[in-house]
Amino acid sequence: MNLLQDIQSNASSEYSPFLEAHTASISVGDDVLLYGTSDLPERNTTYEVQTYLPGWFTIGDDSGGQALLMRLNGSSTVYRCGHGAIGSFPPEVVSDSFSTWLEENCPGPWMDDDEEFDD
Questions:
Q1: What confidence tens digit (pLDDT) does each residue in 57-91 have?
Q2: What is the distance between the alpha carbons of residues 60 and 24, in angstroms, rounded to a whole number?
Q3: Are the C-beta atoms of residues 70 and 79 closer than 8 Å to each other?
Q4: Cα(59)–Cα(36) distance, integer angstroms
């Protein structure tokens, strides 16, 4: 079984419809690029995700060096980790639900909230 087949068979039921609908990668919100089936295997191979985080795969990136990841165990949770740190540190939770996260235009803790500062 190749990586794409493994992802299609073992990824979250929330993620599978997205993958089925997107051959090409798409930009979501201001910062997120979600990989389509044409880019998914190459990106996972390039970043050696399965070597450093067996049982995980990258679904996209934040256009700033952060990989967006999911597990190959049916979980809907989305995580992030620096591309250069994959396997060195535990990934951080971005959202407990891929579908909710996608509906909200993929917000993340790395994005500024336009905070107001007191003078």
A1: 999 999 889 999 999 999 999 999 999 889 899 99
A2: 12
A3: yes
A4: 8
Please report which helix (H) or strand (E) contains residue 10, including its range: helix 3-10
Count Cα atoms within 13 angstroms, Cβ side, for 33.
14
82-94 pLDDT tens trace: 998 898 999 999 9
CA–CA distance, 114 with 104 (Å, rounded to integer): 17
Task: Give dist(CA 119, CA 112) in Å, integer.
Answer: 19
Residue with tokens 């994959």: 86
Taking the whole predicted model, whether its pTM rises above 0.85 is answered as yes
The answer to whether the beta carbons of residues 8 and 19 sit under 8 Å apart is: yes
* DSSP conformational letter for 49: H
Residue written as token pair 């803790």: 109
Place of tokens 């979501």: 28
